[in-house]
Amino acid sequence: MTNDNKRKCSAFVARFFVTFFLTGSIKFGAVLFDPVSTNDGFTSALTGLLFILPYATSRLLGPGINQLMNYFSPRFLASLGGFIFGAGYVCSGLCPLCPLYLSIFLTMSGMGLACMLLPTVLCLKSSFGDNFRAIMPIAMLGSFAGVAVIPTVTVYVLNSYGTSVCFILFGASAWNLVPCGLLLQADHLRKENFKSEMINLQQKSYHDPPSLRDDPTVPQEDTLKSAKDCHGISGAIKSLLTNFEGSMKQLANLNFVMFFIVANVRKIPNDAWMLYLIPHTIARGLSPTSAATVGSIGGIGGLLGRLVASISFKTTRSIPILLFSM
Questions:
Q1: Which of 45, 88, 175, 211 has its CA 20 to 30 A from that of 81?
Q2: Domain boundaries, position 234
């Protein structure tokens, strides 16, 4: 296998399993919803909030992870994120079942998940280039595989070993994301190291002829100042605020606003369906095993739908909003 094929394979596998555990974490919470909500101190609303924390936290921390990629490679972030994600669930199983512990550890899992989402997308895009539009829906099959597999396995473990072991085994299985991250071959995606850039610029001679002062290929004094400003904690905070301000300007872009509305409105019924379908079917009188089977059917349908989508994206010129609205 050539290096190019290895890079493509590692990027695809990493993205597949990240999406597997991303949606799998919600279905995992759906199976444990009733056992957890029956404990003292838990209400249905609180239980739902706790189990959606990993997913929600991973989305909210996206801009921060973008800043971390100024200093760390995708391989490091993805492998570290996989360890933190699994550790959060393992700690949840080892500690007493209470809202405080669950909120802390599941938020920690969300932080780990955030460290994997952006790096794996960038690696996939870098590895496949023009074929990214076709390969992305296929890699997203992992999300529906998680919906199809996680409920059935979790119900079996729950009936056999109990709630705490469910948390521990799910977290331990999520540690498979660590080798997935380590296999990524995309260190070239790491953004400029501002400290090294500053040192290189300092070593340049600024006694060049005036004609070179205006040459865009020659480092100028304002470039050196910018590199110094970006170094250190204060520089990182300043860079984060600057990027946040730039992101807010996107609200003036009608296309972005429409995409934002469609993408997030779509998630309201989708996420609620994943989390509450199994508890709802149990409340309607189905056994936990039958409810898990009902929850898995949607994943099987999604697998088939993504295959059709990947074929259509390969053969037609689809606009990006369709990719996220399906």
A1: 45
A2: 194-205+216-249
